[in-house]
Amino acid sequence: MSYLALQERPVGDIVAALELEQPSVSKHLRVLKDVGLVRARRDGRQMLYRVNADAIRPLHEWASTFERLWRHQLHKLKERAEEKMKEV
């Protein structure tokens, strides 16, 4: 998704960047479009895709609630590892 965040891109560019088969990329893009996470527009024969930032914002906010949890868990893990190193 970050590949589509800054500018819209044609399917061919996305296929090349991801090194996946075109049908697979198209299928994923269709799903993302159906749920509103990406937008598509036709330019001649090409379909151009871009991230729908407004739709992703709630997902980002929801995921960020877990960031504090993981940061706390990693801090506890670091403290335990440092304690074990002192024992050695």
Could you walk me through the main structural features you see in this protein, from its secondary elements to its overall organization?
By secondary structure, the protein is α+β, with helices and mostly antiparallel strands. The protein has 2 domains: 1-51, Arc Repressor Mutant, subunit A; 53-88. The protein is 68% helix and 16% strand. The protein has helices spanning 2-5, 11-18, 22-34, 53-87; strands spanning 9-10, 38-43, 46-51. It has a 3-stranded antiparallel sheet with strand order 1-3-2. The longest helix has 35 residues, at 53-87. The termini are far apart.
Question: What keywords describe this structure?
Answer:
88 residues; alpha+beta; Arc Repressor Mutant, subunit A; 2 domains; 4 helices; 3 strands; 68% helix; elongated
CATH homologous superfamily grouping of the largest domain: Winged helix-like DNA-binding domain superfamily/Winged helix DNA-binding domain
CATH topology (level 3) name of the largest domain = Arc Repressor Mutant, subunit A
Give the domain tally.
2
Number of strands: 3
Reading the helices and strands in chain order gives: HEHHEEH
Q: Kindly, what is the distance between the CA atoms of the first and last residues, rounded to a whole number of angstroms?
A: 45 Å
The oligomeric state is single chain
Task: Describe, in short, the structure shown.
By secondary structure, this protein is α+β, with helices and mostly antiparallel strands. It has helices spanning 2-5, 11-18, 22-34, 53-87, and strands at residues 9-10, 38-43, 46-51. The protein contains four helices and three strands, in the order αβααββα.
